[in-house]
Amino acid sequence: MSLIRNYPVKLFLDVGPARDNLDIVMAMVRQADVVFMNREEAGRLFGDSLPSTINSLASLGINAVIKLGNDGAILIHKGETRHCKPYIPSRIITTVGAGDAFNAAYIAGTIKGLDPEEACDLGNRVASMRLNYLTPKDLPDLRHMVDY
Fold first, then answer.
1. What is the rounded distance in angstroms from the CA atom of residue 58 to the CA atom of residue 53?
2. C-alpha of 134 from chain center
């Protein structure tokens, strides 16, 4: 994992539902530029209390996004915490893939030069849109959302 630091690339990590080898997961968390997790995953790594988790991430200097579903997301960046507002979908067909859609939009926004708050907002918008469609191939063309 430390080999990646020899190259000028950003490392994004979604901790996923890891239950085993949490010491290895935490080592990866400490090396990532941005860590994505949902509320349950955050609790598994940092304890059950969301405020405690946020404080731990901020004090460790970990840049992270905690995805909260219909409550939006919490962005921790350079020790500062922000709430990224949710977008309410017109309908919910499925929640499968919404977290991955968030991650992809956040990363795309970052690559396009958005600051972390703007990327978090974009992530929430795209994740909300994802809820309206049965499969990702049904999503509309999203290129205009990150083009300048």
1. 9
2. 21
Per-residue pLDDT, averaged over 105-126, amounts to 95
**Spatial distance between the Cα atoms of 74 and 121, rounded to a whole number of angstroms:** 11
For 4, what's the count of Cα atoms within 13 Å in the CB-facing half-sphere?
Answer: 10
- C-alpha to C-alpha distance for 106 and 11, rounded to whole angstroms: 13
**Domains detected in the chain:** 2-145 (3.40.1190.20)
Give tens-digit pLDDT for 89-107: 889 999 899 999 999 999 9
Among residues 12, 62, 74, 11, the alpha carbon closest in space to that of 38 is found at 74
Positions of E strands within the chain: 12-14, 34-38, 64-67, 73-77, 80-84
pLDDT at 112: 92
Amino acid 148: pLDDT: 38
For residue 137, the tally of other CB atoms under 10 A from its CB is: 6
Cα-only R_g, the chain: 15
pTM of the model: 0.88
Which residues are paired to 77 by β-bridges?
A: 80
